[in-house]
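Could you please consider the sequence and fold following this short note?
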Amino acid sequence: MPEKNYKGIDDGKWYKNGGYGSQKEPHTAFAAMVYLLDKQVGEIRKKVEELGIAENTIIIFTSDNDPHEEGGADPNYFNSNADLRGYKCDLCEGGIRVPLYYTGLSDSASIREKEGRVSSYKLNREYEIELEVTVQPNWYNWFVIE
């Protein structure tokens, strides 16, 4: 199936200052970015192992959003959300869950919300946990994995 060109901002005030540039093959560009990111995370893991510190090191990689449609992105093409509903900015699980890559030292995680108490969570087979979070209007949250 031929790709649909994305016409972005290629000159003027917003060029390389907030707008997405045009892309002839957005699916190919996205696949290349994911490949490069995966390769670079692999390089970090390899270096940690070479240094002999893998046994005492936790690597966490996360993102600030779920799949989105901005800038010509096509989350359906790669099934980026799997069975989750919605995209970035939607108040469905597909819009508010964020991806997380974690190499841990155990099958449990202690997580603290802000300066609150520490809660212990058992990780599932994919090393995932589900947190129920209430975010007040005009407020923010952060979590610390201990």
